[in-house]
Amino acid sequence: MTTKLLLGDEALAQGALDAGLSGAYAYPGTPSTEITEYIQRRVQAKSSDVHCRWSTNEKVALEEAIGMSYAGKRAMVSMKHVGLNVAADPFVNAAIAGANGGLLINVADDPSMHSSQNEQDSRLYTDLALVPCVEPSNQQEAYAAPAYAFELSERHNIPVLIRLTTRLSHSRSVVKLGETRDKNKLAPPADPRQYILLPANARGSYLDLIARQPQLLAESEASPFNRYQEGSDKTRGIIASGIAYNYVQEVYDGISPHPLLKISQYPIPISLVRRLFDECDEVILFEEGYPFIEGKLRGLLGDRKNTIHGRLDGTVPRTGELNPGIVAEALGLPQPDGLPQPDILVGRPPALCPGCPHADTYRALNAVMKQYPQGRVFSDIGCYTLGALPPHKAIDTCIEMGASITMAKGASDAGLTPAVAVIGDSTFTHSGMTGLLDCVSENAPVTIIILDNLTVAMTGGQESNATNRLAAICHGLGVSNDHIKTIVPLPKNHDENVAVIAEEVDHQGTSVIIAVRECVQTLRRHARQGGEK
Amino acid sequence: MKKDIILAGVGGQGLLSIAAVIGEAAVKSGLFIKQAEVHGMAQRGGVVQSHVRLSDKPIYSDLIKVGSADLILATEPLEALRYLEFLKGGGMLVTNSAPFKNVDPYPQDAEIEARIKALPHHLLIDAVALAKQAGSVRCANMVVLGAGSPFIGISEDTLRTAIEQVFSGKGTKTIETNLKGFNLGRNGGNRIE
Question: Does residue B28 belong to the interface with chain A, where contact is any CB pair within 8 Å?
Answer without folding.
Answer: no
